[in-house]
Amino acid sequence: MNTKKTPKADLENKRVLFIQLGIIFTLAIVLLAFEWKTYDRILTDLGTRDVVEIPEEMIEITRQDQPPPPVAPPPQTTQFKIVEDDVDIKDDFIIDVDVDQKTEIEAYVPPVSVGEEEEVAEQEIFIVVEDAPQYPGGDEARIRFLNDNIRYPQMARESGIQGTVYITFVVERDGSITDVRILRPIGGGCDEEAIRVIKAMPKWTPGKQRGRPVRVQFNMPIRFTLQ
Cα separation of 98 and 81, whole Å? Predict the structure, then answer.
């Protein structure tokens, strides 16, 4: 049986073309292999950080010792007792004066001129002086004045309030009373009554320092007691 083949199916005449295409393809692969470049791999760790230790600066803590404040002389105490309205008040009030202000303390006084000394004496308020201020007539006259003028407040009487009102004031260079203040109140109107009576006092004999009248701070506790 003879094999029939059409001229178009015969590849013998195209063998040269196929050989050329194969050579071109082979040369292209070889050329690509020679031109192929490789690089060294570098590993980078983004999670690492450099730690720089900074030394802490130590600050020394210092403490300055303050001298203790001057100790004021103990205050005087005045005690009052409330009685019925029909009883003589003068015979039933008990007033105790525990401390006076005649304590002498030597203090260094820097030398100053006459004008400066007068100006300092007018402005400075002394707590302890050579000659303490006195109520005109002495402590007995002062006690009588308190007995005659202090009235137990009705609010404190009804509420049963009693105790000691600590009051302070300044005896000026002319003997007048200024800067009346409450140091320890008890309420019920007793504080206001104590201030009222102190402001109503006549002029005192002023205190003296080195023979000159000076302003002196004076403390006076007044005790309100119900029977």
Answer: 17
Rounded to whole angstroms, how far apart are CA atoms 183 and 167? 5
| pTM score | 0.48
Backbone angles phi, psi at 144, to 5 degrees: -65, -40
Contact (Cβ atoms closer than 8 angstroms) between residue 197 and residue 151: no
- pLDDT top residue among 60 and 183: 183
78-226 CATH choice from 3.30.2420.10, 3.40.109.30, 3.40.50.12780, 3.30.230.10 = 3.30.2420.10
**Cα–Cα distance for residue pair 168/217, rounded to 1 Å:** 7
Mean local confidence (pLDDT), 160-186:
91
Mean of all residue pLDDT scores within the chain? 76
Q: Give the pLDDT mean for 18-31.
A: 88
**For residues 111 and 150, which has the higher predicted lDDT (pLDDT)?**
150
How many CB atoms within 10 Å of residue 25? 10
CA distances from 58 to 53, 55, 63, 64 (A): 15, 9, 16, 19
Among 24, 157, 21, CA closest to 85 = 157
Which string of DSSP letters, residue by residue, matches 92-127? H--------S------------HHHHHHHHHH-EES
